[in-house]
Design a protein that fits this description.
- With 396 residues, this protein is α+β, with helices and mostly antiparallel strands.
- It has three domains: 124 residues, Rossmann fold, CATH 3.40.50; 157 residues, 2-Layer Sandwich (D-amino Acid Aminotransferase, Chain A, domain 1); 67 residues, Dna Ligase, domain 1 (2-Layer Sandwich), CATH 3.30.1490.
- Helices cover 31% and strands 26% of the residues.
- It contains twelve helices and 18 strands.
- The strands form four sheets. Strands 13, 14, 15, 16, 17 and 18 form a six-stranded antiparallel sheet that branches.
- The longest helix has 20 residues.
- The chain starts with a strand and ends in a 29-residue tail after the last helix.
- The structure holds adenosine-5'-diphosphate (ADP) and magnesium ion (MG).
- The site of adenosine-5'-diphosphate (ADP) has 20 residues, from strand 10, strand 13, strand 17 and strand 18.
- Adenosine-5'-diphosphate binds next to strand 10, strand 13, strand 17 and strand 18.
């Protein structure tokens, strides 16, 4: 019997559309002899749906048609199975069942551990990193603090909350100025370059902050590497075994790699293929020494953040002195970095098969640990102390 894979995508995130592209690419490439895909789409209002119409990318251009033809569902555990339940009048009906979940989501509210947290709580096997790594991977400040504590190279930065800026703008501007201009201002927990801009002076800095706080309460400002080479590596594995792909060198047309560079490829009229649209050179044109250094750093970041599945770790290389800095890990990378694995000799079908196999392995490993135990402490309790008049029964 085929394994039923629930591919979860979409969500209320600025990378909603990118996730649809990544998920449909993956679904097209999954081995149909072994797996049966059940698409699970989360719309921008966080409603969950299933239905075959979700498999055609053109249907997303006509939302009236799409929403008429897909089925609202909830994913839940019942009798040791994972059900997609739909409302049917006064009743609920099982629309479908899945054996394993495959979240292909990008950005805040989904990639940040929230989806994985739900999957963990119902106990379904799932592809990718756990709650902790996913959450840290979404927060550019916490990831830097952690990497710094382990001696990994990161660029100098300052961070603050929006209300702190409102309370003491001067102090924060002074702190940032110590980094020396130009600086790059980023919402701390977004992605796809949304809300990011470069500031060359105090006036521009203030404008950049106004832009960034539209998207997040937490802001990070970094020193700009002006003569920049951007190199990315993908890592595949879990905490026992992991391997690094060929490295890519990515190029944008703007001052930094923008949303347009990432997904529209800079070329007019080209159809977006998600992250596969970016202008890139594989392998990156860097020295063997630097390649080994980046491979080594990639495994360190993967281990440090307790990652699993396929991730992409991005680097900033200062062309002036050859220094390399970890920019950020992407816990569920655009297009799942399939193009990097293809260049490393692993086709997309095999990559997806590896990911699903890893998910089952991780699940089985976890199952061996003890999470609960028989206890009689509740039997010995006669009512709870503390609440006046409360003797074990709730009075409404
Ligand atoms: N310190 C920096 N110096 C120069 N360019 C940078 C720096 N940080 C980021 N960038 C540029 O901005 C892009 C987006 O930044 P990144 O931190 O990766 O945010 P996102 O999570 O939105 O992808 C990078 O791909 C790179 O082109
Ligand atoms: Mg990035």
């Amino acid at each position: 019997m085929k394994i039923k894979v629930g591919v979860i995508f979409g969500g209320e995130t600025v990378e909603h559309e990118v996730s649809i592209i990544s998920a449909l690419q993956a679904i097209k490439n999954i081995n149909e002899d072994k797996y049966e895909v059940v698409p699970i789409y989360i719309d921008k209002n966080r409603n969950w749906y299933t239905g075959m119409e979700l498999l055609n990318i053109d249907n997303y251009k006509n939302s009236d048609f799409l929403f008429k033809n897909i089925i609202p569902i909830t994913l839940c555990k019942f009798k040791d199975e994972f059900w997609l339940l739909r409302e049917k009048g006064l009743f609920k009906r099982v629309e479908d069942k899945i054996d394993i979940a495959f979240p292909i989501v990008h950005g805040a509210n989904v990639e940040d551990g929230s989806i994985v947290g739900y999957l963990e709580s119902i106990g379904i096997p799932y592809v990718g990193s756990g709650i902790l790594g996913s959450a840290i991977g979404q927060d550019k400040v916490v990831m830097k603090q952690l990497m710094k504590s382990e001696g990994l190279p990161i660029v100098d930065y300052v961070w603050f909350y929006d209300y702190e800026y409102v309370n003491d703008e001067e102090k924060i501007i002074n702190n940032i100025s110590k980094l020396n201009f130009p600086v790059i201002v980023k919402p701390a927990r977004l992605g796809s370059s949304v809300g990011i801009s470069v500031a060359h002076n105090v006036d521009e800095l203030k404008q950049s902050i106004v832009e960034a706080v539209k998207y997040d309460e937490k802001i990070v400002v970094e020193k700009v590497i002006s003569d920049l080479i951007e190199v990315n590596a993908s890592v595949l594995g879990n905490n026992e075994y992991a391997e690094v792909s060929e490295l890519e060198e990515v190029m944008g047309v703007d001052e930094f790699l923008s949303y347009k560079d990432k997904y529209i490829g800079g070329k007019k009229g080209t159809k977006s293929k998600g992250m596969a649209s970016t202008n890139r050179v594989i392998p990156a044109r860097i020295s063997d020494n630097l390649t080994s250094k980046i491979n080594e750093l990639s495994l360190k970041v993967f281990r440090l953040l307790d990652l699993s599945g396929v991730v992409r770790i991005d680097y900033l290389v200062d062309n002036k002195n050859g220094k390399v800095y970890v920019n950020e890990p992407n816990i569920i990378p655009g297009s799942l970095s399939f193009y990097l694995w293809k260049e490393s000799g692993k086709d997309y079908k095999t990559l997806l098969d590896d990911l699903l196999t890893l998910a089952i392995k991780n699940y089985k490993k976890k199952k061996k640990k003890i999470y609960s135990f028989e206890s009689n402490i509740l039997e010995n309790i006669n009512g709870l102390k503390g609440g006046k008049g409360f003797k074990g029964k709730l009075k409404m």
